[in-house]
């Protein structure tokens, strides 16, 4: 069976950059961008206009559109013979034999082999449940009146009344930071039926800035999504007016394949790597949001992907130097 140099799992920011760098390094690349189901539960899918990076404002879907342009170019360009794009395929099983080669099984039960893996399956933000469903949030999240990523979209709250959905210290700090940066006239933390778990420093700042805390379950959201307007979150006894909301409930980490290979993960589920993305499993690299530590951003996904692809290329070139056919 053919053994590919590098298999890349995931087709978001990290996966596509890993594919570009691997192919342009002239290493043979097998890309699995995921099934439609994988894509829909990825962060890449939900990102609309990207405002915090140069040259992205014209894309309505700031990750998917530029990625597609680059993948189409790879598939047709001068390195097309090095690029094996398994469109709409996801990996469901992965193992490593003692011969240092990985075996991958896709969602249609096709089997592949590769010497190196760059795993880029990412994470997803936890959604708040409202009356037992995550649906009510989406009409406002889709038009970015409810958001998740401070560095990406925090600037939207400039001078606005804001609600934070979350009960942990992390959620409290989202409120504190937004207030300090953007001078929000009203800030309410909605714990949605959970007990607040804020640390003392956050509590002191919440009191100092006069935030409200509502611990009752959210029963409904009112507004006019068609006209891009969020109005209020309603609980049994309160109506919390908000022009904008941030969700701070943590992340679901897509680490199943790393776990199958026995890679070390941290307490939150992120995969632990060295500076180049190498995990505790030889030959398994991780890039993008799945990697422990670091900012969860497009440009960090790109940088971590380049580090891993270049490191793998060094190993491939070193091996080639020892092969007789390469010596002349
Ligand atoms: C609402 C929102 C807005 C954001 N806005 C910005 C912004 O403006 N600027 C910014 O820098 N960052 C932004 N981010 C963060 C950014 O989206 C992430 O940092 C980035 O997408 C991480 O890239 P990734 O490749 O690690 O993961 P993702 O982009 O999430 O990609 C994961 C990929 O893995 C695939 N996958 C999953 N499982 C499998 C499997 N088993 N087999 C094969 N493939 C699989 C999926 O199909 C997907 O292609 C935003 C995030 C959110 C949620």
Features:
FAD/NAD(P)-binding domain, alpha/beta, five-stranded parallel sheet, elongated, about 30% helix, about 325 residues, seven-stranded mixed sheet, binds flavin-adenine dinucleotide, 2 domains
Describe the model:
The protein is an alpha/beta fold. The chain has 2 domains: 3-124 and 251-327, FAD/NAD(P)-binding domain, CATH 3.50.50; 127-247, FAD/NAD(P)-binding domain (3-Layer(bba) Sandwich), CATH 3.50.50.60. The protein contains 11 helices and 17 strands. It has helices spanning 13-24, 36-40, 43-46, 64-76, 135-141, 150-153, 169-182, 200-209, 256-260, 298-321, 324-327; strands at residues 3-9, 29-32, 83-85, 91-96, 102-106, 111-119, 123-125, 146-147, 161-165, 186-190, 212-214, 220-224, 229-234, 239-241, 244-247, 251-253, 284-286. The strands form 4 sheets. Strands 1, 2, 3, 4, 5, 6 and 17 form a 7-stranded mixed β-sheet that branches. The chain is elongated, with a radius of gyration of 22 Å. The mean pLDDT is 96. Bound molecules: flavin-adenine dinucleotide (FAD). Flavin-adenine dinucleotide binds at residues 9-15, 32-34, 38-39, 42-44, 46-47, 50, 52-53, 63, 90-91, 120-122, 125, 148-149, 152, 254, 288-290, 296-299, 301.
């Amino acid at each position: 069976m053919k053994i590919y140099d590098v298999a890349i799992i995931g087709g978001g920011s990290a996966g596509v950059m890993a594919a570009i760098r691997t192919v342009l390094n002239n290493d043979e690349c097998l890309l699995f961008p995921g099934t439609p189901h994988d894509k829909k539960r990825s962060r890449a899918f939900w990102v609309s206009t990207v405002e915090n990076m140069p040259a992205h404002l014209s894309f309505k879907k700031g990750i998917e559109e530029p990625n597609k342009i680059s993948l189409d170019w790879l598939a047709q360009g001068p390195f097309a013979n090095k690029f094996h794009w398994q469109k709409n395929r996801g990996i469901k099983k992965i193992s490593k034999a003692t011969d240092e080669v990985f075996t991958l099984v896709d969602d249609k039960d096709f089997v592949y082999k590769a010497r190196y893996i760059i795993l880029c399956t990412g994470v997803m933000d936890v959604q708040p449940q409202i009356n037992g469903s995550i649906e009510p949030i989406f009409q406002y999240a889709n038009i970015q009146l409810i958001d998740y990523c401070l560095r990406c979209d925090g600037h939207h709250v400039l001078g606005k009344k804001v609600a934070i959905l979350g009960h942990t210290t992390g959620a409290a700090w989202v409120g504190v930071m937004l207030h300090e940066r953007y001078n929000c006239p009203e800030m309410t933390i909605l714990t949605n039926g959970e007990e607040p778990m804020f640390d003392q420093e956050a509590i002191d700042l919440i009191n100092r800035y006069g935030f409200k805390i509502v611990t009752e379950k959210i029963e409904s959201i009112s507004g006019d999504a068609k006209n891009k307007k969020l109005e209020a979150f309603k609980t049994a006894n309160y109506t919390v007016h908000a022009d904008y909301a941030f969700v701070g409930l943590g992340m679901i980490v897509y680490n199943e394949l790393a776990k199958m290979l026995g890679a070390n993960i941290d307490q939150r589920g992120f995969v632990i790597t060295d500076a180049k993305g190498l995990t505790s499993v030889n030959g398994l690299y991780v890039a993008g949001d799945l990697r422990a530590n670091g900012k969860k951003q497009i440009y960090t996904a790109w940088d971590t992907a380049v580090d891993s692809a270049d490191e793998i290329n060094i190993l491939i070139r070193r091996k080639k130097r020892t092969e007789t056919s390469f010596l002349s």
